[in-house]
Design goal:
The complex is a heterodimer of chains A (197) and B (152).
Chain A (H helix, E strand, L loop, with lengths): L18 H7 L1 H4 L4 H11 L6 H29 L4 H6 L3 H7 L24 H24 L4 H29 L16
Chain B lengths: L16 E2 L14 E2 L8 H7 L24 H21 L4 H25 L29
Antiparallel strand pairs in B: 1-2
Helix pairs in contact in B: 1-2, 2-3
The chains are: A mainly alpha (197), B mainly alpha (152).
Chain lengths: 197, 152
């Protein structure tokens, strides 16, 4: 089961509101390569993983991603609290505001609501872990792109931290894949699917 | 037949890792294993950087200059300890035989428990199961982590 711990993984202290930046960062809450998708991808893939280190990696990284979801939600909340009508309009937050006011809703920056079509669960350890490697890189690029458009040091500091986590996760998924190979058929790794055959 | 040889474990440098038998198979994604007992940051710098390992610190140009000093609070200290435990836990998942890191892991587990007790005495419970009769039902005490002042 899951238990809530009443703290963030990394501190978020944003002093200045910025609705424009919030409307971009919301993509890491509910966009195609965001933290909601990341946590559901890993936590869903783990059921058919055949080896303990793969079950462990997907459980622990999936759980950490839930912590990152909370951090991204906190960033968006702190960037949009107590806005004036003028700030909403001039900050380009009006379309979002009409539907959600200052609520935090899982959507891409483009306005598409969160969709499971951004994640893959194939029931095959090679396919799933290869998806996870790609997913970590896509999230890393999204954070790079957010950094290009951020000039608030309070925001950049947290985004930089989240970006660094994607690289560590990429490394660990790659190591998991490497460890799994030693247990698959030596001559033909595709010969059987250990979670099914 | 000529095969590609890689250097022995331990001589690859901190930004690289080993391949089995010096060769990687075709048609299989391959990430080198991080070498055992890799160089590490201290825990405060690790939290600030987002990784405990200098070899995995691959920054982006737009973020190179941005490093905020870590607060010197019971919460920041606990975050650094919990982060080190999580980061080492992921490492140990794929390197369960690294004795040096395993010992470091136990020492951080102990420090994190002490940091947790210290924080909770000052600010209240982190888990609902941490509530004590003396505090009353302190679970609902503001600020929550996303609120202003929630990370002070």
């Amino acid at each position: 089961m899951f238990v809530y711990e009443k703290k963030l993984q990394y501190p978020v202290h944003i002093k200045t509101v910025n609705p424009k930046l919030a409307s971009l960062i919301i993509s890491q809450y509910g966009g195609p390569d965001g933290e909601l998708g990341a946590s559901l991808r890993y936590l869903s893939q783990r059921y058919t993983m055949p080896y303990p280190e793969l079950k462990g990696l997907l459980t622990d990284i999936g759980t950490e991603e839930l912590g990152h979801l909370e951090m991204v939600g906190t960033i968006v909340h702190q960037l949009t609290r107590d806005l004036t009508e003028k700030q909403v309009q001039e900050g380009g937050y009006d379309a979002y505001f009409i539907d959600h006011t200052e609520g935090i809703y899982p959507t891409a920056a483009s306005g598409t609501p969160w969709s499971a079509s951004g994640i893959g669960v194939k029931g095959d350890l090679i396919a799933d872990l290869t998806e996870d490697l790609a997913a970590e890189q896509k999230a890393r690029v999204t954070y790079d792109n957010i950094l290009r458009f951020s000039d608030d040091p309070d925001v950049k500091d947290v985004i930089r931290y989240l970006r660094a986590r994607e690289i560590v996760h990429f490394q660990r998924f790659g190591e998991g894949l490497r460890l799994a190979r030693d247990r698959l058929d030596e001559k033909n790794v595709y010969y059987t699917n250990p979670s099914f055959d | 037949m000529q095969t590609e040889k890689t250097e022995q474990a331990g001589t690859c440098g901190i930004g690289k890792g080993t391949l089995p038998d010096g060769c990687a198979p075709l048609a299989y994604p391959y990430i080198p294993m991080q070498q055992n007992n890799p160089p590490r940051y201290n825990r405060a710098e690790a939290l600030q950087t987002g990784t405990l390992f200098p070899g995995l610190n691959l920054p982006f140009k737009a973020a190179m200059a941005e490093k905020m000093p870590t607060d010197n609070t019971a919460l920041a200290e606990l975050m650094a300890l919990d982060f080190a435990v999580d980061e080492l836990g992921l490492y140990l998942t794929t390197h369960p035989n690294d004795q040096e890191v395993l010992e470091l892991y136990w020492s951080y587990i102990k420090l994190a428990q002490e940091g947790r007790d210290k924080y909770q005495k000052m600010y209240g419970p982190l888990l609902q199961t941490d509530l004590t009769p003396e505090q009353g039902y302190a679970w609902l005490k503001d600020p929550w982590p996303w609120d202003e002042g929630g990370d002070d």
